[in-house]
Design a protein that fits this description.
Blueprint lengths: L45 E7 L15 E3 L2 E8 L2 E9 L6 E6 L7 E4 H4 L3 E2 L2 E2 L3 E7 L2 E4 L3 E3 L2 E6 L5 E9 L15 H7 L13 E9 L3 E9 L2 E3 L2 E3 L9 H9 E7 L7 E4 H4 L9 E2 L3 E3 L6 E3 L3 E3 L2 E8 L5 E10 L5 H6 L5 E9 L8 E7 L2 E12 L10 E5 L7 E2 L3 H4 L11 E2 L3 E8 L4 E8 L5 E3 L2 E6 L10 E10 L2 E11 L3 H6 L3 E14 L8 E18 L7 E8 L5 E7 L2 E8 L8 E8 L9 E8 L4 E3 L1 E11 L2 E3 L5 E3 L16 E4 L5 E6 L4 E9 L2 E10 L5 E7 L2 E2 L4 E3 L9 E10 L2 E9 L4 E10 L12 E3 L8 E4 L11 E8 L5 E3 L3 E3 L7 E11 L4 E10 L1 E2 L3 H5 L6 E4 L4 E4 L3 E4 L8 E4 L12 E8 L2 E5 L2
Parallel strand pairs: 19-26, 66-67, 70-72
Antiparallel strand pairs: 1-13, 2-3, 3-12, 4-10, 4-11, 4-13, 5-6, 5-12, 7-8, 9-10, 14-25, 15-24, 16-23, 17-22, 18-19, 18-24, 20-21, 21-22, 26-36, 27-35, 28-33, 28-34, 28-36, 29-30, 29-35, 31-32, 32-33, 37-46, 38-39, 39-44, 39-45, 40-43, 40-46, 41-42, 41-44, 47-58, 48-51, 49-50, 50-58, 51-57, ...
């Protein structure tokens, strides 16, 4: 054992402002390669996408699968719109095969180069260490040279048997994007990549805290507890008693955890064993990446990820081992950054997370889950340690990453070692490079052990509402025995996307609701089809339409949006589907899905509408004009980019709990008696919940809405009763969780809906019976897109009156809606006012004559239904003299007045001459001496006062 210096440096450091999509895109391209500070910036207007040669049937034949062929060229990538290629990986090809790069619709490639030349690292602009071949990357060829494009990019090859992955960012608009020329200067990025272990961030003149401590067995020690605001930018750590290739040291690295709490969080945002956190899950090995690393020469471990906080940062070491840490030296650098607090509050900067997960018995047929989380954030890397059979077939598993609830994997790779930029089971041995590596490999007679890392430094994985990172173990999730991982990501407390509408194409009622139109329809009907990915054995039924002309529909959005995302379910069995998109008659761009899949042919595809066409509007009209052979559509989801509360409550992140059995079953995540355990779906769960025990969440923000209460649970021994209280009020009563099929198998059960008023609420979930596991609880907003039911107000009296008029009304919301919120009423074209039934209109508050009264029933979602009735108001005439004092156009009710003279088309009442009587025009002339009831309007004709009753 040799002595080592343990240094932990935590620097609080000024936040460097980067541009946002639609403005200055300084973060597009080369700027991303080594700017670690931009990792925490949650920029709007960018999505990550990937094209690969993965087997479209879900099998293991992952080579030679292209989008389509164009003459002698096999098309690997074909996208329209602005973006940037960040990662190009391949293997298995002829080194002399050609790659061609077309930008912005070019018919002649801008760059033609052989595989050997591109990945040699010596042919400009593809220079080491941004690129490398299979000797450098143990079986894989990689390039991280950014290649931006303004309106599209196509990459082809002449090699029909290539394995490939191309990862790129797609931007909402092209403002600030400059298309790649090949003349860009990458020297600064190459310099930073060539000296991993040295923090590329500038010095901020921090205040230094340092010391040396010991940590007894099964205890913790606080390394930092300081006030903010600021940013943690780096720390180094070393434990002298840890040495390479030593079983005791390996156990110590797996049992000593680093935890970090930002802004008084009750649970740690960083919670991981030291070994995995610094890049190796198999003990101390040489790891030299850009953001983290391990020196094995007694120098240090390091981490350069920025970690921002607004008010408080606390970092601690937790020793779960039965051996003490005898010496731990650290240095902490802290600098005040006042501006960062507002950026965190605005959701522009995310909290840093490092989450650990372990699955000791991999589930047959299901991906290993690296991460499953909700919120707005960005995944920036992971370390994965794997145990499997000695022939290493577990490495055949593909990565399948799902973003923002998509049922189609946004990233679908070709193999585990391919994801880590290697190849052929890492046939050249271990290596460590700036953003990927295979630093550790061990084997014995029974098992093979592999530890790898991959950092998404430039090819970050942004998400607006959720992300799920899955990794197959074996070609059919049938290999391997145990996986363990740490994933690094940034996330805010809120989500960044809200579902505001959906359109079920083929449902005529829903189409009518959205004013749907179609021209040139060639097919309508329904299909049973499958999605790609982890659930490719589940058939989905949907009906839709195909056209060669256009379709048009109106969708509801929130005026506070910062752009709108359209997600469309399409039949990807049809190749190269393409349409021009118009919003309110303004051309936006082209919606294009190159390639096809005739086996797993359901596909969720995305089109982004910029905020310039959506902000401030409640509805927009979308028109899709076909540009290819035909265009198909089955279902649309409409999301508004806007911050909204994250209402998924992870069970392990409770604020308070009541547990009747003393002692946390594991205790690695948080202290207390609740039994926190690993959940086979990723992350943690609260298990061993007994009758009467409860979990409580404080200060949960709800917008006023109708919600389904959703529980993700496991209770294999039978049905179980639970209930949910909000602010001490039982909203669900005793509800039943159905029995699940086995240990570790979780079901989703939903209850309600329930109306929840806007504001901060306290949520308590009580188990009324024993032996329940909870993964999470979620309150899912119910979309209310339908107006209240039609109604007819009643009027009393229904005829002319000089007294009060009573309007009575009542209706119900559409079944499943949020409920009636209020009624509004107006008279003629006057303004609406809040009214209640009965609405009594008093004499003198309206003018005489006939009027139209309109009642509007408004539900809690803002939908409304209008209904109108007519009312008739007139003055009672007392005497001829009083009548003559009234203004023209006054409506009168005259009764008890005697007809004194009758003529062919008129008569007088009371007096037979102009001076004393009132002349009356009527459609029928009464007899002299009669006393008819008259209703008419007072006018002046040729100087004479006339009551016109015609």
């Amino acid at each position: 054992m040799h002595p080592r210096l343990i240094i932990i440096i935590v620097a609080l450091y000024a936040f460097l402002v980067c541009g946002s999509c639609g403005a200055d895109k300084g973060w597009i391209g080369l700027a991303n390669l080594s700017d670690l500070m931009q990792l925490q910036d949650l920029n709007d207007g960018v999505r990550v996408c990937q094209a690969s040669s993965h087997d479209r049937t879900g099998g293991n034949d992952d080579r030679g699968k292209f989008l389509y062929t164009s003459g002698p060229e096999y098309v690997m990538l074909d996208v329209k719109g602005p973006g940037c290629i960040y990662r190009l990986w391949c293997t298995g090809g002829n080194p002399e095969s050609t790659l061609r790069f077309y930008f912005d619709g070019e018919s002649v490639p801008r760059k033609t180069i052989t595989i050997a030349e591109l990945f040699s690292g010596t042919v400009s602009p593809f220079l080491t260490p941004l690129v490398g071949n299979d000797s450098v990357s143990s079986g894989g060829f990689y390039s991280y040279l950014p290649m931006p494009f303004q309106s599209g990019c196509k990459i082809t090859t002449t090699d029909s048997s290539l394995y490939y992955n191309i990862t790129y960012h797609a931007c909402t608009d092209s403002t600030g994007v400059t298309t790649w020329t090949g003349n860009e200067d990458s020297s600064a990025a190459r310099y930073d990549w060539s000296r991993c272990g040295v923090d590329p961030k500038p010095d901020m003149n921090p205040v230094t805290y340092q010391g040396t401590i010991s940590v007894p067995a099964r205890s913790s020690a606080i390394l930092l507890d300081c006030a903010g605001p600021g940013t943690v930018t780096q720390f180094f750590i070393n434990i002298p008693q840890i040495i390479p290739n030593d079983p005791l040291s390996d156990n110590l690295l797996n049992s000593v955890w680093i935890k970090a709490y930002w802004d008084n969080s009750a649970t740690p945002q960083v919670c991981a064993p030291l070994g995995l956190f610094f890049g190796s899950g198999l003990g101390e090995y040489s790891v030299r990446s850009l953001p983290i690393g391990m020196y094995t020469d007694g120098t240090s471990y390091y981490c350069f990820f920025p970690m921002s906080f607004a008010s408080r940062a606390r970092i601690e070491i937790s020793n779960k081992f039965n051996t003490a840490i005898t010496s731990l030296s650290y240095r902490i650098d802290v600098a005040s950054v006042p501006s960062i607090a507002q950026k965190i509050a605005d959701g522009d900067v995310g909290y840093f997370y490092a989450r650990h997960y372990r699955e000791g018995a991999l589930r047959f047929g299901r991906d290993y889950c690296i991460l499953d989380t909700t919120g707005k954030g960005k995944v920036v890397g992971c370390v994965v340690s794997m145990k499997g059979e000695t022939i290493r077939h577990y490495l055949e598993g593909d990565e399948r990453f799902y973003i923002d609830g998509s049922l189609t994997p946004d990233l679908y790779g070709t193999g585990t070692e391919d994801y880590f930029n290697g190849g052929w089971y890492f046939n050249r041995g271990v290596f460590s490079l700036p953003v990927h590596g295979y630093p550790a490999h061990e084997a014995d007679a029974s098992f093979d052990y592999t530890s790898c890392y991959r950092f998404h430094q430039s090819d970050t994985i942004p998400y607006r509402s959720s992300v799920r990172l899955g990794l197959e173990h074996g070609s059919a999730n049938d290999r391997g025995s145990a996986y363990e991982s740490v994933v690094y990501y940034y996330q805010t407390k809120k989500r960044g996307m809200l579902l505001t509408d959906r359109l079920d194409v083929g449902d005529t009622t829903d189409e009518s609701r959205h004013a749907y139109q179609i021209s040139g329809q060639t097919w309508n009907g329904m299909y049973y089809k499958y999605y790609e990915g982890d659930d490719d054995d589940i058939s989905v039924l949907d009906h839709g339409r195909v056209f060669t002309g256009y379709s048009q529909f109106q969708i509801r959005i929130d005026p506070a949006n910062k752009g709108v995302r359209l997600v469309r379910r399409m039949d990807y069995a049809v190749a190269n589907v393409c349409a021009d998109v118009y919003v309110d008659d303004v051309y936006v761009g082209t919606w294009y899905d190159a390639g096809s899949n005739t086996s797993k042919s359901w596909r969720d595809t995305v089109f982004e509408i910029p905020p310039s066409l959506t902000t401030g509007k409640k509805r927009i009209t979308v028109k899709l004009v076909n540009r290819g052979g035909s265009f198909n559509e089955f279902f649309y989801w409409v999301y508004c980019h806007m911050d909204t509360p994250n209402l998924r409550l992870e069970a392990e992140d409770y604020d308070t709990c009541y547990d009747t059995t003393a002692g946390n079953a594991t205790g690695f995540y948080r202290d207390g008696d609740a039994d926190i355990e690993y959940c086979q779906e990723g992350g943690y769960a609260v298990g061993g919940v007994m009758a009467g025990e409860w979990l409580q969440f404080a200060g949960v923000e709800f917008p006023a809405a109708l919600y389904k209460f959703v529980v993700r649970h496991n209770n294999e021994y039978g049905n179980r009763l639970i209930r949910c209280e909000i602010d001490g009020i039982d909203i669900t009563g005793s509800v039943t969780l159905p029995q699940t099929s086995g240990n570790g198998v979780y079901y989703t059960t939903e209850f309600g809906p329930y109306w929840i008023e806007g504001g901060l609420h306290q949520i308590k979930i009580i188990s009324e019976e024993s032996n329940v596991r909870f993964n999470y609880f979620e309150f899912v907003r119910v979309l209310d897109l339908d107006p209240p039911s039609a109604f007819i107000p009643s009027v009393d009296p229904t005829s002319w009156t000089s007294g009060p008029i009573t309007i009575s009304f009542q209706t119900q919301d559409f079944p499943g809606g949020w409920g009636i919120d209020h009624y509004e009423g107006k008279i003629d074209s006057g303004p609406y006012q809040i009214v209640t039934s009965p609405w009594i209109i008093q004499p003198g508050t309206i003018s005489t004559g006939p009027h139209t009264v309109t009642i509007k029933a408004v539900d809690r979602a803002g939908n409304y239904t209008e209904a109108s009735v007519n009312i008739y108001y007139a003055l009672n005439a007392d005497s001829i003299a009083s009548i003559k004092q009234l203004a023209d156009n006054t409506w009168l009710m005259v009764s008890g007045k005697t007809v004194t003279a009758a003529y062919g088309n008129c008569f007088y009442i009371e007096e037979p001459n102009r001076a004393a009587g009132i002349k009356v025009f009527a459609s029928s002339i009464p007899a002299e001496g009669s006393t008819p009831s008259l209703i008419g309007k007072l006018v002046t004709v040729a100087g004479e006062r006339v009551l016109d009753c015609r």
